[in-house]
Amino acid sequence: MTKHVTEACRDECLAGLGRAWWTWYADTGSVGVGGGRARHRANQGLLSTPAQLPVVSVVRDVESQLLPNVGAIVTCKVCSINSRFAKVRILYIGSTPLKSTFRGTIRREDSTSCAPCQVEVYKSFRPGDIVLAKVISLGDMQSNYLLSTAENELGVVVAHSEAVAQMVPISWCEMQCPKTHSKELRKVARVQPEFLQT
Amino acid sequence: QYVPVKGDHVIGIVTIKAGDIFKVDVGGSEQASLSYLAFEGATKRNRPNVQVGDLIYGQFIVANKDMEPEMVCIDSSGRANGMGVIGHEGLLFKVSLGLIRKLLTPNCEIIQELGQLYPFEIVFGMNGRIWVKAKTIQQTLIVANILEACEHMTAEQRMQAFAKLSER
């Protein structure tokens, strides 16, 4: 009896929640969702025969969360860098801000379309940069979203220099600080023509 | 507190041996990583003989405030050039960063005068660490004590100390 209930629960949950974690408590007959608040609604006939499968739906307290899809353009902030990849927090999907941030990774070989041996993460991103990237993989439970900036329109949008001033992009790989006029290397996103003032 | 700088030669102590890389304590806020291939004549088959606790003399190839520093024990042409594992004998001690820079100026008097006293081997790390080895333990300790005291002594006091020692 309990087994039928729980299988129905699991299918329902997997269909509706995407990446959100879920657990289910088989003995009490309730469904809980990890990482969020959820209520369950179940038919009263839980103790009925297997022929009448109860319908369980998970209703979250907050409105539904937008999740990044493969191919979506996301705006993220670089948290830390490594010689092999940069860890980022995804803040916006398209133009909608997210209530809870997701974590992403931009690997060294995905940061530009040039050969990976010539690319250095330190010359592409720094902690604190705002980056436009595209989702290339959702990853599994443990790993983060895999992002790529290997296009002209993707890359660093906003960056601050060592003198804590917002830098101005001067080429696809350099940004200049207006205070100290020093140039710093970043993988800069090409500005869309409609945003350029001429 | 030492801040890693690219190109600086430092003395580090191996703390962790993890597969392909060693973690080396260089006295900074983070430990430096050292690849096992970054030694002269090291290949995937021919691994260098480095254990936890060994002293390493190497230079930084990556050292900035955003990433973990990386060091190597070969120079740009692939030769060791004096870098690598430091022998098991001798004494490692710490001095201030300013004293190291003073001692590393060309024709430093202190080192020349010490050299006239006893023959010894010495390695300076820009992170404030010095390794000394002389013929006997007593001589090693004397050299170490003089170097540590050089921080505070004037040139005259140093001359007096050397005079006393060379009398013995």
TrEMBL record, chain A:
Recorded superkingdom: Eukaryota
Coiled coil location: none
Originating gene: EXOSC1
Keyword set, alphabetical order: Cytoplasm, Exosome
Source organism: Pelodiscus sinensis
Protein name: Exosome component 1
Domain S1 motif: 69-150
GO biological process entries: RNA catabolic process; RNA processing
CC per GO annotation: cytosol; nuclear exosome (RNase complex); nucleolus
Molecular function in Gene Ontology: RNA binding
SUPFAM superfamilies recorded: Nucleic acid-binding proteins
Annotated transmembrane regions: none
Taxonomic classification: Eukaryota, Metazoa, Chordata, Craniata, Vertebrata
Protein's cellular compartments: Nucleus, Nucleolus
InterPro entries reported for this sequence: Csl4 (IPR039771), EXOSC1_C (IPR019495), NA-bd_OB-fold (IPR012340), S1_domain (IPR003029)
Pfam families per UniProt: EXOSC1
Automatic annotation (TrEMBL), chain B:
InterPro entries per UniProt: Exosome_RNA_bind1/RRP40/RRP4 (IPR026699), KH_dom_type_1 (IPR004088), KH_dom_type_1_sf (IPR036612), NA-bd_OB-fold (IPR012340), RRP40_KH-I (IPR049469), Rrp40_S1 (IPR037319)
Similarity-based family: Belongs to the RRP40 family.
Statement: the UniProt record of this protein carries the keyword Transferase: no
Source organism of the structure: Pelodiscus sinensis (Chinese softshell turtle)
Keywords: Cytoplasm, Exosome, Nucleus, RNA-binding, rRNA processing
Chief localisation class: cytoplasm
Gene Ontology CC terms, in alphabetical order: cytoplasmic exosome (RNase complex); cytosol; euchromatin; nuclear exosome (RNase complex); nucleolus; nucleoplasm
GO molecular function: RNA binding
Subcellular location: Cytoplasm; Nucleus, Nucleolus
Protein name from the UniProt record: Exosome complex component RRP40
SUPFAM superfamilies listed in its UniProt record: Eukaryotic type KH-domain (KH-domain type I), Nucleic acid-binding proteins
